[in-house]
Amino acid sequence: MHKELQDNLYEKSPAYDIEVLIRQYGNDVLRTAYMYVKDIHTAEDIFQDVFVKVNQKLSTFEGNSSIKTWIIRITINTCKDYLKSAWNRKVVPMMEYQEDAIVSDADYDDVEKQDTNELIKRTVLGLPAKYRDVVLCVYFQDMSVAEAAQTLNIAEGTAKSRLSRARQRLKSLLEGRISDEY
Amino acid sequence: MSTNKHNNIEFDDMMLKSHLNASLDKDKINVSEELINRTLAAIKSQQSSQDSLTNNHSPSVNRVVPFSRYVRSFAGVAAAALILVVGIGAFMTLGGAKKDMEKGSDNSSHIFAGKEADRAESADYKDTAKSEDSAYFPQDRVEDTANGMAILDSLDAKEDKAPSKSNNSASDKMDEDVSSDDRLDGDRDLSLEAQHSEEDYGLLLTFSDILPTELEEVENITINIVNEDTIYDIDSTRYKDMYSLFSQYTYSIIDEPAGEVIYAIIIDSSKGSNQINIGDSVSVKDLNSDVEYSRTYNISDYQQFIAEIKAFISN
Question: Cβ of B169 under 8 Å from any chain A Cβ?
């Protein structure tokens, strides 16, 4: 009986090699973590935590979503756990404030001097968390709205409306501020 | 900006991915071979420690940290120790002068001062000064703490609570069982929930303790007079006045709900929205999460507070 269950599990989830997963999805994990915590050393710590957890939980992965979606979901949770701790609450807001401040009208002149990529990154990261999450899932991680909703544990309709509002906000923030090539 | 219209909301017409990746490439945010090796070593170490653990103990995450990070940590500790020594020196120097200070002049020590209030109220001027000193530097903590970090912590009662709890919290979070990662946390970043713990019960809190939104972050404030079903959109020039009004009072956590709401104040910021309900007491609700979370507080001078709110709205 136990063997049957195990066989079923293996059928559902092919044997993944952790090193292959690290090499294949490592950049996605590191970059996602970086965009949440905005510090490369912390992002690297989170990277390690994520793949240790992935390795531990790999046998329970049932293949209901893609392996990448599953790993990104663990990454986002790990980042949120990190950001929720009070210590980081005291450190991060200043950084977030800077991000937010940069996209405000008053300080736009300073931002204009930076290149388009940097401006877009800062604008995306300056979005309210609920909008930023769904933008990163759909546009940065190439998830569908349904996958993003599953990853963020919200209803698909909620994900859709947040994405729509995030797009409106991004467009209004970036309108006229970047060149036509964008 | 592209003017192309796409019905498919999933289509990245703003090319965000390529812009983000280009920016991250520029910042050199890439996985290095060294990071991969460190991670594989951490996984290996995790597996071997897991083997040696009993079933009742959850495994902890053993990160492999490069030597340069240890050097940075050591430098941080050395800097903290230096600040501590300078701080103690400054305190010793100012200790005598402190006794000449007027009673109750420092609001920043209100939390510890609250604990000392009974003693301080019955004491004469000299005793009060002594009590204030102990509010800054509780003697038992100084003696009990080998590395003296508690002294640094107690310099600011507000600072004291967050870092000490959070240091534990941060390491606990990283070390907790992997199974907890399956639960998702909604959208609550920097939430009210993280703001308080059981230890906060009975303590006097300031407005900034109960509301995570800083004045500089406020984007919009509306006040709803519930009985009259009237909503006032507060002018941005008056945000500071409203924060000042709330900051004049102290708050203590209670378990009861806020009762019938008289005023509902919604504060929108770049980080999200919070609602302050004012009834018999004050409750602060986090509107950013799918799961409702709120906390209720008694306010130091309720009648005066209500009168001031009323005056603020009528102005």
Answer: yes
